[in-house]
Fold these 2 entries.
Entry 1:
Amino acid sequence: MIFWGVLGLIFIRIVYPKLSHLIEGIPNKKGVLISWILCLFLIFDSGLSCIAVSRWSQRNQGTPATNELRRKIDQ
């Protein structure tokens, strides 16, 4: 608990102001593009995670991989 508290204080006092200044320096047009790219990446990552968890659940129930995608996920 103390470790996380100290780490949080360090982040707020040292890292956040520098990071905020860096983000505010990004031009608006580039910022919108970067935001969309990150948004699409997070959607892709979330979908892939859902597929992996679903396959993990099927594998625990003893369901074998029936196609190439499921075999690839199992690896």
Entry 2:
Amino acid sequence: MLQKIRECAEPLTEWFLRAKREMPWRRDPSAYHVYVSEIMLQQTRVDTVRPYYQRFISELPDIRALASCDEDRLLKLWEGLGYYSRVRNMKKAAEIIVRDYDGKFPENFQELRKLPGIGEYTAGAVLSIAFHQPEPVVDGNVLRILSRLTGFTDSIDLERTKKKCREMLREFLQESKLCPSVFNQALMELGALVCIPNGAPLCGECPLSRFCTASLSGRISELPVRSPKTSRKKEAITAFLIFRGRDILLRKNGGKNLLSGLWELPHYEGKPELSKTEAFLGKLGIVPESMRFLPEKKHIFTHIEWELYGIEVLAGSGSLRKDIEEGNETLRFFGPEDLDLRIALPEAYRKWQLRPGEN
């Protein structure tokens, strides 16, 4: 396996220097820029990330700005990318870097790994791309390439497989004279553009086709081997778009779940039921002037699929709880300008238009 990498390294890096895409984070690959881009790119497409990255860096140009950013503003900058724990961990890590490392990223693998939200892949990317250290980056793209290139049949979902590949690539980078930044980015780029994750690989465009075990043996469709996928859990959610004029009522998620701490539409679990709806609105102190069902929607998280049932409610005047009127910290009316500029709302709840009568 290591010998195969030695044979492929030079044609791979030569291909990358010719074919690499223009990326905003590649123009100035500082540790902060690499860090922000790699966290954003987790489970998110490059084309989606580009405008988010540019806006984020424009407003938070360095680690100190990130560490001191107001949470609501930070979440708004992240709105639409999902997996909000990523940006919360970024802020926590930034605060530690500013407090304990004088605003400079640690250049040690174990020190980086201690920071919230930084795994082996992100640590390897920062150290190799920003500091040119011989640390590997191993993700699904890299595992797929190595499996096809060398013909190994261990499941790439197993931690022992990932560990074996990391150790092999680290050994290669330590012995090689190639720049770790170029080599690692070349592997990632090949996986994104040629040995693609969905669909048939573009073997005719691959600089490594003459070395590739899977291609030469006709086993492209068999590799990589993956563990059987578990089916997504399905959940029904009944969400309420409660309007007072043009303002909409939002609730802050106080649970320990993937949307924890975010503003969201008031909702209950399950499909709409009249008695349940009446009790839910009654608890909020809302007497509706009118109600209507909205088109059903669907939202897919990594392991959960939501069936979304929406109900638009026009709230009658004088029917609200006093604490809502006075500005509850966890239940509050927001205007359209708040949703546009200040308040981050999870993508699942933006399946509907957040204006009365527009759905």
